[in-house]
Amino acid sequence: MADKCIACGREVTNDEAGMTKKLINRGTTRYYCMDCLAKYFEVPVKNLYDKLEEFREAGCTLFAPKTK
User: Fold this and answer.
1) Which of 13, 33, 55, 56 has a Cα at 20 to 30 A from 67?
2) First-to-last CA distance in the chain?
3) Cα(45)–Cα(34) distance, rounded to whole angstroms?
4) Which residue, among 62, 68, 34, 29, has the nearest Cα to 50 in the 3D structure?
5) Cα 8 from chain centroid?
6) What one-character DSSP code corresponds to residue 10?
7) Using one digit for the tens of pLDDT, what is the confidence trace for 6-15?
8) Where are the domains of the chain?
9) How many whole angstroms separate alpha carbon 68 and alpha carbon 47?
10) What SS3 class is residue 4?
């Protein structure tokens, strides 16, 4: 993925893009990195990663399944 965070300009990962879509708007094409997404929602970054794993385990298609 070559998209950049709309707040800080850092390149975002597929998981960061997925979290932006899940938490803000599934149709968005503008993404946040996890640090900026945490600031946006005023939560610790760890909370977002924990939530990401919950979404992944629930089968959300915005996130690739965890490889073993």
Assistant:
1) 33
2) 22
3) 6
4) 34
5) 15
6) P
7) 999 999 999 9
8) 1-68
9) 23
10) strand
What 8-state DSSP symbol labels residue 12? P
Which residue reads 């993404």 in tokens? 31
Mean pLDDT over the full length of the chain: 93
* Residue 21 one-letter amino acid: K
If you average pLDDT over residues 47-65, what whole number do you get?
Answer: 93
Q: What are phi and psi of 55, to 5 degrees?
A: -60, -45
Q: How far apart are alpha carbons 30 and 20 in whole angstroms?
A: 8
Helix (H, G, I), strand (E, B) or coil at 56: helix
Residue 1 has pLDDT above 60, yes or no: no
Place of tokens 């709309």: 6
Calpha distance 55→6 (Å, rounded): 23
Q: How many CB atoms lie within 10 A of CB 66?
A: 8
CB 44 within 8 A of CB 11: no
